[in-house]
Each structure stands twice: as structure tokens, then as C-alpha cells.
């Protein structure tokens, strides 16, 4: 049974692993976008506050990107607002 | 059975493509019908009813009863009007002295072997034999009634919902043909020859023991009371009908709720229903008795803590408690310390209101829905690749498919009415690929056999689908013109290079998937070259740690082969619950408003802020598992749950229980004191689908009306309860009818722009997008291009699950559902459906059973890293060695005690389909089961109301 902090790290690593085939930098960017788009603010703050020792390299890079962005807007390939409308 | 108020045209419509119109004369009147139409149907369309017994318009014409004979000018004899097609200039007479003599002669024979008990017969007034006897003027039976007959035959009352009385049977074969043609089970037959012919179920078994799946098609087809609903026997024939939509699976069958006065007599599938085309399954047709079940809670209840008994209170007190507690908790712990869960069993309007309550009233986005645990990966995967979170086709599309690939779905159990359509098409010659660890009924059953069954190791979907893509790319099977015209070429090139690598080949991945490479290559070739190829998938795709990747892999494959944007093809998620699609459409996810628009999108947010008059939170909210985690940490303290039972349905039950137990106020709005209610502080009694107005949206994006059939027994429809909570929170909500809620949805949601109750009445139903450009809806998506612009290929690398088998847990558990039950069973367990499935059983392969010394029916302990439970074994070759399977319909089993916290990487959809387990012999329930049973019994106590 994971603690909530361990779960956040696990989730970030899992996202990074599934995006890793895009190449390290693109995967880190996509991981950061994904977390920005789908995690609630407290979860983001928690993972950014973590020492990142348990994070895989791509996930760690993603979290660094998130910290650099400060208060990120959710902008990612997964949530492209304009092109993703369901207006048919 | 005559359909109350509906006209039976006798035979099916012409099946000829582009049929030209034919003009003929019937009884002196000119009639124009499409070529290929029968004389019987042409006459009916012209207003002339020809007597008939073996004909009905949802079956192929049979020509057996000889009652529908007609005269055709210039033609010798008396042809059967049901089997004789019209020809140009044909002159038909349906009435003459000779025809009357012939028909009367036939009827004399029928009636000579029929009980003359019309006045006490349950079909009195609703009997086609009786009608025809009247129509032909039968006054006497020259043969008498003393000859050989079938009047001593025993009645079969084994089926809980209908009876078979052979004495009333005229052996017209309508039941047999309905079972064959409509349902596709082939459970019935005519046994014996000539006068000895009788209808038999399977090998002359009773109906309950036979292969009959109790879909009701035979009962619907029967022209007499030989097959009749027991509810009609008990109550009498109905005298009015209301068309509404079923509240079970995502097929969304429409039914005529037939009533006598205010009492529901039966649910009859509506012929005009575009999702079900007049067919039904055992759940929708018969399993509606839960609405009147004694365990239904009809009064609001509250309690201070979950160890206290419930206390019945007024609506005002219960609603007031919800409002005061949520406001208190927010004041003490912050705006984001509360949230809610919308229901896929409730209407679009109710779901919309719950998410609005949370966003507008609670001031956060902590709203989620049961799609979190089923099709959230579909939303992510299809939106990423196609640009929209929905299936691409209507159900009718399957009749144009040349190839079907069914992945991780068991439609004959989960979506039985659509499975019958699939089987109809398969019997016409369509080819079939089944990708499933289990040998489901579609793999091989009566007149159906898959060309390829790929029994993959659970958890290897991505490896398998990427290997199929490898075959498509490396063998030159890509539809290059399609890809060039419609897809992002840069992304395609990256994807094609990735899948073409040797590491993705069927041979390289065979050790992972355990699917022989040659079989996989053959299946991939069939999918790519077999014509129009449609993919249908279910929770065997989504409920994995790579659920979203699998959906993307499916979309990649469909785009690469040009199989999106045309009839007969597409990517089609089979939705589990009746309104999963609608709940998702209505903004039930914590990051999206209705129409799948992100909460961070300032333009969309401004639209809702203007409409709702508040500033909205731009940050995504918590998903269900995040809420539970936050609860155990004390950061999330109040939850409003409408129509879901997360304790039973969500994974790792003990973790869910811990989260719920940690909250200060849990509000459950439901029909029954479900398992989640054991941890609730306020219970708001809900209304059934029979008791309210609204809409459901099925798996094909079809928005259909739910109509109030009877008054809500609890006093309020669910949307009224949500509105009362909102008003108690000082929100200015004043909806007078659900149609007004839909009008608001349409104003704020581009894909619903042309949806209104008036439009639904006019068109019967609408498939979204229904916009100014597509005012009558959109049966097939992406016709002229993808919603997102260019179709987007995404690389899907296979990442094995972290749930590993090993010496302690050597088997893989996968879970699912069975035909007779629905989801957590809260409804179906409270019906006679328990006759088919009184308990969850563990399917285990004979070799695994033998290794453990287990026999069929033995009690076994099923244990994982998360927990353990006990249930009885079902030894069967339906599962492969190393794989076990069970259902989650019964709380006494609590199958989700076993499932783990592992989930889809993109959406947190739980990995229900892969849990490492051990199975061993057992003597009784686990400690947890016993403790839970005690706790549940205690939690359901209701304080007696003091006498005044």
C-alpha cells in the first residue's frame, strides 16, 4: 500500500514511462503538460515540493519544468483547446 | 402478442438496395411500395389488414399458416401474401368468398386443437388467433373437439418472467424464428413432425434450464398466450403505453412501458427504437421489479456518525443538513475540501446539475463520475487521436461491416441487444476477430465462429495491437491515400517507423502476448484487407495500466487502414452503463466542462461564468481515487454521491472504505442503502428511471428521451433533489422541468446546440454533434475529416504492468459482468434475475483447478496483495490456464477487495483486468468478509419512528 506521496511519485513516473518513446525532452514536456492538465493544484504542489529522489529522470525533468513555469496553464497535446472542440 | 397501439405490417421492409417503386392495385386501391415488398406489407401500408398468424414484421416471411392467402389476377391458385412480392401492375384481392372459405378452413383446424377458454385466457383481447377467428367469421368447427389434440400438455413455468403453455401453441414458429433471426441464440426448435410438432427449448428442457437467454423475443413474437409474461397473467392486459429508454447498459434500448392504469404491466421493446430496433435483453425487458422492491428507501435519513442507526427526517431537514455540513466543512477546511460524484445511471440533466452544483455551488472542480473506472481512457485516447471523446458510428453501421474486431468486450453478456445485431451480420458472412483472454460466446456459438481468436495474456493489449500495426506497416497494408489526405503525416511517419521496428513484430512479442505470431499476422491481414473493418471494444481495453495507450493503439490501427469516417467501419467503445457517454458529455470529469472543454480554457470558462454568475475555479479538480487519498490525509472531508456505489464498484475496497470512513459528511443519493451508504451521514432517496423525465445518451452518442411512467415513489425526481440542495446553498436555480435544463446545456455546449425536447420529439432521438450544420445529428463521425483536423498518430510503447505474478500470486485475475446482472447488481439482484446468477463464481481452468485439488462448486479463497475473499469455483475451459475470472455483482463476495490500486497512466482508470492472485481451497468466508457483513448490518439499522 503506497502513501499518498509515494502514489504521486508513482503516478508521475508512470506517465513519464508511457511517454518516453517520444524522446527524453519531448517526453518530459508532455509529462509536465499532462500533470498540469489533469492534476489538482495540491497534488502538483506536493510533487513539486518533493525532493524528487524517487522520480525517474524524465519525470524529474517534467517536475522541474513545472516549477519553472510557476503557475502553469494547462497546454498540451492532450488538451489542445481550439482543435479539440467536439463541434463536429 | 399484439403490440399495444402499434401496427404490425406483417413482413419486413424491402431489403433491396435502391429499390425502385412499384405500383399495384389492392382491393381496387392503388398502392405504391418499394420493389421487394410483400403483398401483405403493401396491403398493410395501404390500410388493408390481411389475416395472418405466422407472419410478423420483425421476422422473415415464412408462409406456413396459410391464413394470408390472396387472389392475384392472372395467377392461378391462392398465393400467400407474406411470401409473394409485389410486381408492377399486379391486381390483388384480399377478400372473396373463396378466400374466406379457405381461411375459415384453416382456422377450423387450428381451433379444433385449442382450448376454448378465451374469457379466462390471459391474452384475451390481445390474441391474434382470436382476432383472426373473428376476422374470418369462424362460427363452427366441423371436426369437433374430441379428436387428437395437445390439450393435456404441461405448462412450463420455470422461467421467472414468462410461461410457456403448449396447449395454446399453434406451432407457427414465430418464437423459433425470433430466437434464430432476432436474438441469434437458436435455443428453440420445432420438435417432431406433422401433428406431433411441438415447440421445444434446447433438448426438450424446461426454459430455465435450456440455452434460452430470456431476451423475450419469443414472447413478443407469440400470437397467442402460449408464451406470455407472468406479469400479464397476474395483472391483466395493458391499456396504455409510454415510450422510454432503458436504464441498464449503454445500448440504450427504447421500450414501451405498458401499463394498466398506474400499474406497470410489462416493458416491450419499441419497434421504432433506433438503438435496439425492437429487440431487448433479459434485463431491460424483465428486470424492472426493483422499482417496487421492499428494500427501496423512500424517506430521507440522517445520522451524526456512521456507527449510529439512520433516522428518518423530512426532505427539508435532510437537504438542510447537506447544505450546512458542506458549508461548515468548506469554512473550516477550505473550498476544495468537498466534492461530488455524478451518476452514469442518472439522466443527462441530473448529471449536468450535479457538476454545476459542484462548480458553481462548491466553487471547485472536484467532480468525477463512474467513467473514471470504465471508459475514461476512451475519452483520453479518442480525443488525442481523433479530437472527440466518443465512438465513431451508430449501431446500424455494423450491418455494413465486412470485418469486426472485438477487443476486450463480451457483448453477448454486456451489450446483448447489440450483440444480436452483430450476430445477424456475422451470419450474413462478415468476418470476425476476437481479442480476449477468455473464450467468449462470440468466439464460437450457434452459427457463429470467429475467424481468429487471439487469447492474449491479460495486460498485453498494447503489445498485441502494436504488433498488428507492425504487420500493416511492414506488409504494405497501409491505406496511403487515406493517411495522406486525412492524417498528420509527420506523426504518422514517426509512428510507422516505431511500429516497423523488429521489436514490435508478432514474433518478437509472442512471448509477451502468448498469441502465436502466425495467428496474429493472419488477423492483422484480415483487418487491413477484408473490406470495411469495425472495431468494437470494452473494458478489457480500458481497465489496464495502459488503457489509454490501448485506445490510442486502436485508433492508430483504424486510421492506418482507412477505417474511420465511413459506414461499416470505425472505432466503437461499448459503454457499460446506460448514460456513461452522457455523464462524460455533461462535464462530469474534474478537468472538463460539458462538451469536453478544459476548465483552464479561459474562453469556455468565461461562457459558464457569465451563465452561472460566479467566478469559476480554473484548476482541475480531484479524481475519485485522488479524493479518497486526500480523505485519508484529512484534506477532503465531504462527498456527495449520486447514484453510484463506489465501495462495491471501485478497486481496493479497503482503501475506498478507509477514505469514506475518514470523511465528516458523506451524502448518498440512491434507491437502496448500497454499500457506500454504510459510510454515509445523509441518505437522499432517489427515483428510478420510470419515475422521471430526462434524457440518456447511449454508446452511439444517441440522445433519447426518458419519460415519466409513474409518480416518483420517493416524492421527488433526482433533478429536483439536486435543485433543492442548490437552493439550500442559496443558488438561484428554478428549473420547472428537465427540458429547461437541456435548453441550458444546449446554450452552453456546441455539440448539443440543436438538442431540445422538441427536437427529440420531432426526430425520435439525436446523435450528437447536433449543430446548425448537422441539425438532425451525426450517425457517423469524421466523415470529411477528423474533428481535431488531421488524425493524430501517437506512438504506443508497451509498458508492462507493475502487477506481477510470482510464486505467491501465480494466477492473473480478470473481472467482468454476466448477462443477467448489471454492474454492482443493486438493481438486478433485487429482481428474479438471481435465478440465473445467485452468486459470483470464480472461473478457473481445469488444469489450475486440478493442481489445487479443486472441483467444480468448491469454496475457494481468492487472495491478492490487496486482500482476500471467498467464493465458489466454476471449473471451465472458457479461461486459459493461468487466468481466473469473476464478476462483481454481489457484495457478499466483494470482488474488489482483491483488485489493486494500479491504474491507467493517463486517467487513473483502475486496472481491474490484471490482478495477481492465488486460489486455494477454503472452508468459509474470509475474516474481512465476516467483519464487513457485521459492519454492513449495523450500518443499515433504521431507527423506528416513534408513535405520535
From TrEMBL, chain B:
This is Formate dehydrogenase subunit alpha. Keywords: 2Fe-2S, 4Fe-4S, Iron, Iron-sulfur, Metal-binding, Oxidoreductase, Repeat. Residues 239-295 form the 4Fe-4S Mo/W bis-MGD-type domain. InterPro entries: 2Fe-2S_ferredoxin-like_sf, 2Fe-2S_ferredoxin-type, 4Fe4S_Fe-S-bd, 4Fe4S_Fe_S_CS, Asp_de-COase-like_dom_sf, Formate_Dh-H_N, Formate_DH_asu, MoPterin_dinucl-bd_dom. GO terms for biological process: formate metabolic process; respiratory electron transport chain. Residues 160-191, 203-232 form the 4Fe-4S ferredoxin-type domain. Pfam families: Fer2_4, Fer4_7, Molybdop_Fe4S4, Molybdopterin, Molydop_binding, NADH-G_4Fe-4S_3. It comes from Sphingomonas baiyangensis. One of its GO terms (molecular function) is 2 iron, 2 sulfur cluster binding.
Amino acid at each position: 500500500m503506497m502513501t499518498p506521496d509515494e502514489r504521486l511519485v508513482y503516478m508521475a513516473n508512470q506517465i513519464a514511462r508511457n511517454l518516453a518513446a517520444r524522446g527524453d525532452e519531448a517526453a518530459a514536456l508532455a509529462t509536465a503538460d499532462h500533470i498540469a492538465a489533469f492534476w489538482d493544484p495540491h497534488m502538483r504542489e506536493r510533487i513539486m515540493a518533493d525532493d524528487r529522489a524517487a522520480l525517474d529522470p524524465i519525470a524529474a525533468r517534467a517536475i522541474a519544468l513545472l516549477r519553472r513555469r510557476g503557475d502553469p496553464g494547462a497546454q498540451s497535446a492532450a488538451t489542445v483547446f481550439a482543435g479539440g472542440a467536439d463541434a463536429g | 402478442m399484439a403490440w399495444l397501439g402499434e401496427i404490425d405490417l406483417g413482413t419486413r421492409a424491402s431489403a433491396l438496395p435502391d429499390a425502385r417503386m412499384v405500383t399495384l392495385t389492392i382491393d381496387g386501391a392503388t398502392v405504391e411500395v418499394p420493389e421487394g415488398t410483400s403483398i401483405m406489407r403493401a396491403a398493410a401500408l395501404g390500410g388493408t389488414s390481411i389475416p395472418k398468424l405466422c407472419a410478423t414484421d420483425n421476422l422473415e416471411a415464412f408462409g406456413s399458416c396459410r391464413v394470408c392467402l390472396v387472389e392475384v389476377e392472372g395467377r392461378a391458385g391462392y398465393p400467400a401474401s407474406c411470401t409473394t412480392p409485389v410486381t408492377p401492375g399486379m391486381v390483388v384481392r384480399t377478400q372473396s368468398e373463396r378466400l374466406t372459405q379457405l381461411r375459415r378452413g384453416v382456422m377450423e383446424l387450428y381451433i379444433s386443437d385449442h382450448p376454448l377458454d378465451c374469457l379466462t385466457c390471459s391474452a384475451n383481447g390481445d390474441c391474434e388467433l382470436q382476432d383472426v377467428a373473428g376476422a374470418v367469421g369462424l362460427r363452427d368447427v366441423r371436426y369437433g373437439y374430441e379428436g387428437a389434440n395437445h390439450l393435456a400438455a404441461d405448462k412450463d413455468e420455470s422461467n421467472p418472467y414468462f410461461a410457456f403453455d403448449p396447449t395454446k401453441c399453434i406451432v407457427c414458429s414465430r418464437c423459433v424464428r425470433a430466437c434464430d433471426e432476432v436474438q441469434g441464440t437458436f435455443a428453440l426448435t420445432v420438435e417432431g413432425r406433422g401433428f406431433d410438432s411441438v415447440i421445444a427449448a434446447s433438448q426438450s428442457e424446461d426454459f430455465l434450464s435450456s440455452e434460452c437467454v430470456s431476451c423475450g423475443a419469443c414472447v413478443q413474437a407469440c400470437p397467442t398466450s402460449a408464451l406470455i409474461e407472468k406479469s400479464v397473467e397476474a395483472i391483466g392486459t395493458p391499456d396504455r403505453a409510454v415510450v422510454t429508454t432503458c436504464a441498464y447498459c449503454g445500448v440504450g434500448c427504447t421500450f414501451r412501458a405498458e401499463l394498466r392504469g398506474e400499474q406497470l404491466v410489462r416493458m416491450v421493446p419499441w419497434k421504432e427504437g433506433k438503438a435496439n430496433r425492437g429487440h431487448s435483453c433479459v434485463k431491460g425487458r424483465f428486470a424492472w421489479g426493483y422499482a417496487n422492491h421492499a428494500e427501496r428507501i423512500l424517506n430521507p435519513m440522517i445520522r451524526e456518525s456512521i456507527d449510529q442507526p439512520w433516522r428518518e427526517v423530512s426532505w427539508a431537514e435532510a437537504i438542510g443538513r447537506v447544505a450546512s455540513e458542506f458549508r461548515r466543512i468548506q469554512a473550516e477546511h477550505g473550498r476544495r475540501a468537498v466534492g461530488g460524484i455524478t451518476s452514469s445511471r442518472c439522466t443527462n440533466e441530473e448529471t449536468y446539475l450535479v457538476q454545476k452544483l459542484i462548480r458553481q455551488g462548491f466553487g471547485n472542480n472536484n467532480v468525477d463520475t463512474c467513467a473514471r473506472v470504465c471508459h475514461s481512457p476512451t475519452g483520453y485516447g479518442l480525443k488525442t487521436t481523433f479530437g472527440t471523446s466518443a465512438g465513431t458510428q451508430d449501431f446500424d453501421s455494423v450491418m455494413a461491416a465486412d470485418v469486426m474486431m472485438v477487443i476486450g468486450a463480451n457483448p453477448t453478456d454486456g451489450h446483448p441487444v447489440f450483440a444480436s445485431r452483430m450476430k445477424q451480420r456475422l451470419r450474413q458472412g462478415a468476418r470476425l476477430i476476437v481479442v480476449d483472454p477468455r473464450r467468449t460466446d462470440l468466439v464460437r456459438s450457434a452459427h457463429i465462429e470467429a475467424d481468429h481468436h487471439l487469447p492474449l495474456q491479460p495486460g498485453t493489449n498494447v503489445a498485441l495491437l502494436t504488433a498488428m500495426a507492425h504487420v500493416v506497416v511492414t506488409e504494405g497494408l497501409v491505406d496511403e491515400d487515406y493517411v495522406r489526405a486525412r492524417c498528420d503525416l509527420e506523426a504518422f511517419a514517426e509512428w510507422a517507423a516505431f511500429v516497423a521496428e523488429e521489436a514490435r513484430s508478432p514474433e518478437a512479442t509472442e512471448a509477451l502476448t502468448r498469441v502465436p505470431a502466425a495467428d496474429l499476422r493472419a488477423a492483422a491481414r484480415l483487418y487491413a484487407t477484408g473490406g470495411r473493418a469495425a472495431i468494437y471494444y470494452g473494458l478489457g481495453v480500458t481497465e489496464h495500466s495502459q488503457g489509454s495507450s490501448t485506445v490510442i493503439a486502436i485508433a492508430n490501427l483504424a486510421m492506418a487502414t482507412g477505417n474511420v469516417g465511413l459506414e461499416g467501419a470505425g472505432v466503437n467503445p461499448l459503454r457499460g452503463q446506460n448514460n456513461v457517454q452522457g455523464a462524460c458529455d455533461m462535464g462530469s470529469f474534474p478537468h472538463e466542462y460539458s462538451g469536453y472543454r478544459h476548465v483552464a480554457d479561459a474562453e469556455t470558462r468565461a461562457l459558464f461564468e457569465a451563465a452561472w454568475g460566479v467566478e469559476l475555479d480554473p484548476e482541475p479538480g480531484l479524481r475519485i481515487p485522488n479524493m479518497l487519498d486526500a480523505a485519508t490525509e484529512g484534506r477532503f472531508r465531504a462527498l456527495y454521491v449520486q447514484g453510484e456505489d463506489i465501495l462495491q464498484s471501485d478497486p481496493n475496497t479497503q482503501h475506498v472504505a478507509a477514505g469514506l470512513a475518514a470523511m465528516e459528511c458523506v451524502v448518498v443519493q440512491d434507491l437502496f442503502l448500497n454499500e457506500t451508504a454504510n459510510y454515509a451521514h445523509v441518505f437522499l432517496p432517489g427515483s428510478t428511471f420510470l419515475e422521471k423525465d430526462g434524457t440518456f445518451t447511449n454508446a452511439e452518442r444517441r440522445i433519447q428521451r426518458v419519460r415519466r411512467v409513474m409518480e416518483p415513489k420517493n416524492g421527488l425526481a433526482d433533478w429536483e433533489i439536486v435543485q433543492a440542495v442548490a437552493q439550500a446553498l442559496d443558488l438561484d436555480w428554478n428549473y420547472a422541468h428537465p427540458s429547461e435544463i437541456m435548453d441550458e446545456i444546449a446554450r452552453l455546449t456546441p455539440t448539443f446546440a440543436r438538442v431540445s425536447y422538441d427536437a427529440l420529439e420531432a426526430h425520435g432521438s439525436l446523435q450528437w454533434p447536433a449543430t446548425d450544420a448537422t441539425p438532425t445529428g451525426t450517425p457517423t463521425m469524421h466523415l470529411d475529416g477528423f474533428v481535431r483536423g488531421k488524425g493524430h498518430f501517437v506512438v504506443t510503447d508497451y509498458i508492462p504492468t507493475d502487477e506481477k505474478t510470482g510464486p505467491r500470486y501465480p494466477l492473473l485475475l480478470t473481472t467482468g459482468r454476466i448477462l443477467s446482472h448489471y454492474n454492482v447488481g443493486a438493481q438486478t439482484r433485487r429482481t428474479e434475475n438471481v435465478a440465473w446468477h445467485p452468486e459470483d463464481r470464480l472461473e478457473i481452468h481445469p488444469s489450475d483447478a486440478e493442481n489445487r485439488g479443486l472441483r467444480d462448486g468448491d469454496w475457494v479463497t481468492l487472495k491478492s496483495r490487496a486482500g482476500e475473499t471467498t467464493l465458489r469455483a466454476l471449473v471451465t475451459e472458457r479461461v486459459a490456464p493461468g487466468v481466473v475470472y469473476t464478476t462483481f455483482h454481489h457484495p457478499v463476495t466483494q470482488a474488489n477487495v482483491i483488485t489493486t490500486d494500479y491504474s491507467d497512466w493517463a486517467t487513473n482508470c483502475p486496472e481491474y483486468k490484471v490482478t495477481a492472485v492465488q486460489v486455494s481451497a477454503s472452508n468459509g468466508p474470509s475474516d474481512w468478509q465476516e467483519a464487513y457483513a457485521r459492519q454492513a448490518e449495523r450500518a443499515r439499522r433504521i431507527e423506528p419512528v416513534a408513535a405520535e
